[in-house]
Amino acid sequence: METIVHPCQELAHIMALEGQLGPLDGKKYLLTWSYHPKPLNTAVANSALTIAAKFGMDVTLLCPTPDYVLDERYMEQARADATAQGHQVTISHDIEEAYVGADVVYAKSWGALPFFGKWESEKPIRDRYRHFIVDEQKMSLTNDALISHCLPMRRNLIMTDAVFDGPSCFAYQEAENRLHVQKAIMKSLLSDKN
Prior knowledge:
Layout: H1 7-21, E1 28-33, H2 43-54, E2 58-62, H3 72-84, E3 89-92, H4 95-99, E4 104-108, H5 119-127, H6 136-139, E5 146-148, H7 161-164, H8 171-190
Parallel strand pairs: 1-2, 1-4, 2-3, 4-5
């Protein structure tokens, strides 16, 4: 169930977040682009953005340049959901500003939409932003934030070993929740509604 969104991942993610934090309303959620040597799709990022806004968090999308801002359809939906609950969605290209005070950091790489299908053109741009890795220094700017990734993840490219193996990372709990979420979806789809 992954095309341009990833519903199973977003449900597993939000389930893990609620398990860790309880009510999410008003929490600062940072969705950060991270370097990866390949241009990955935007499905997980689109889903993370929209579900965080739907659950009442103040969402910051951190990416290197405007070319990496997510598809306007998902940005618009996230803004509408956040606004309806008295919160906001912010786009930032400033690493330090974006991390300050975050309660949750979600790291994901994705390709720049204007370069879709033009990998050779995007690669030199992407390679300039290896410093978007989630590391201890960036995490020290947060509000003792939780950190996750959808997995699998390239260590020391997306986030450092120290962050991934640290007590704030809940990526394995999120991954486990995929099983529970997918079983619930299957049960719902197979149940007799008559």
